[in-house]
Every structure is written in C-alpha cells, then in structure tokens.
Write a structure and sequence with these properties.
about 20% helix; Ribosomal Protein S8, Chain: A, domain 1; four-stranded antiparallel sheet; 3 helices; flat; alpha+beta
C-alpha cells in the first residue's frame, strides 16, 4: 500500500510539472505594450504617394505591427510598441515632404524657310512627381455612320476629335544622382488639311505632328526639345522649354 501511494505521488508530480511547463509563455513572446497612434499626412495628397508611404511602413516596421490607411482622412493608423511608433514617426516625417512646384514655359516658333512666321508661348504648372496636360484647339465632328429607324430615317452617328495643340508634361527630381530634373513631355499639333478625304467628302483630313521624349532640365536654362516639319508646306516648328520655380 505504501509503495502504491508513493508511485501515485510521483505520477501526480510529473503530470503537474508537465502541465505547468506547457502553459508557460515563451520567453521570446512580444510583451503587450502596444498602443495606437494616428499620423496625418500634411504634404502628400495623391493616392499613389500615400500608398507608397503606407507600403514603406509595412515593410520597415516590425511584422507584428499593424498599419491601416484611411484615404478619406489622409491618415495612417499604426499599432505597435513605443519604439516602433517612434520609428514610424521618423519614417513619415522623412517621406511626407512638401514637393516643389515648377512652371514650364513652352515656346513654339514657326518658321518658313529662314523667316520667322510666328511665336506662341504656353505655360503649365507641374508638381514634382506629378503630371499636367494642356489642350488648345477645337473639337471637329466626324460622321462615323448612319442608322435608320421608323422615327429617324437619317440618324447620323457623330464622333468628335480634338484638333489643335496638346502638351503633356511630367517631372521627376534628382534622377540617378544627377542634380537635374527629368522632363517627360509630348507635344502634339494637329490641323485640318484643305484637301478632301478620298473615303468620303464629308470626312476631314487631319494633319498631325508629334514630338515626344525625355530630357534633363536645369533651372532657368532654355532647352530646344526638337523641330517639327509641317507636312504639305515649307514650314517647320521649333519647340523650346524653360523650367522655373513657381512663386
């Protein structure tokens, strides 16, 4: 009987010790000291830029931290330890910077041989990392088909096309370590020709010239982007651009 009691006591001791060990919290578990902080972005407003900052936080903070984006409030919620919240504050402060605003002035000079016929200036405002488009001209109706019905025997289907000058510009600062500003631009000029279309007399013939490319600009220094020959004439156009800080 004494031997049985002794064996029973040993068994209970072993089982109790195993149960306590199984409930012990791992030593490397994260302490429950998390708190939540809201960061409002004051300088960045474009969805693309806000998403990039949110992605950077999720990649650089502790995987156990939680990062939530609220686009309608331009705010980011971060849940983490005090040390991680300080890191998040530093990262947001470095990334949420006020972007510079520039003025691009395009000068389109039309030449007939060596004689200057006319000059036009067009100015647009572009934020660094952003894009701006300018359109000047007319919308020309183009009949694409005719549908007949009992109520409308001659119902023409009309599509409008833009004719004139289109400028598309986007800027990026300090590309590849260069102290310059990269300009991606497209200058498109179109006009209605005098001759008639061989497809249909009502269809206009559209003349079009296009200049598209990438350049590195320096502040207040004009740069000739290129020249455009005008089809059907002896004229050509030169396109020049100058970059300035917008006031």
């Amino acid at each position: 009987m004494k031997l049985a009691k002794a064996l029973l006591g040993i068994t209970l001791t072993v089982c109790t010790g195993y149960s306590a060990q199984g409930q012990t919290k791992p030593a490397d578990a994260r302490p429950n000291t998390d708190s939540i902080r809201t960061f409002y972005l004051t300088n960045v407003s474009q969805v693309h830029d806000v998403t990039e900052i949110t992605t950077a936080l999720r990649n650089l903070l502790d995987p156990a931290d939680k990062v939530y984006l609220v686009p309608s409030q331009n705010a980011i919620f971060v849940q983490g330890t005090p040390a991680q919240l300080l890191l998040a504050e530093k990262l947001i402060g470095d990334l949420d910077r006020l972007k510079k605003t520039y003025r691009l002035t395009y000068t389109v000079t039309e030449m007939d041989g060596s004689k200057r016929v006319g000059t036009q200036h067009f100015s647009v405002i572009v934020v660094s990392g952003g894009r701006t488009t300018l359109k000047q001209g007319s919308r020309v109706p183009l009949v694409t088909g005719v549908s007949a019905s009992p109520t409308s025997p001659n119902n023409s289907q009309v599509q409008y096309i833009d004719v004139g000058l289109n400028i598309d510009a986007s800027l990026d600062e300090y590309v590849d370590g260069m102290k310059g500003i990269r300009l991606r631009t497209k200058v498109e000029q179109s006009s209605i020709a005098e001759e008639k279309s061989s497809v249909g007399l009502q269809d206009p013939v559209i003349r079009q010239t296009l200049l598209e490319g990438t350049s590195i600009l320096t502040l207040n220094k004009p740069l000739v982007l290129g020249g455009l020959d005008l089809p059907g004439s002896t004229r050509h156009q030169e396109v020049e651009v100058v970059l300035e800080l917008a006031r």
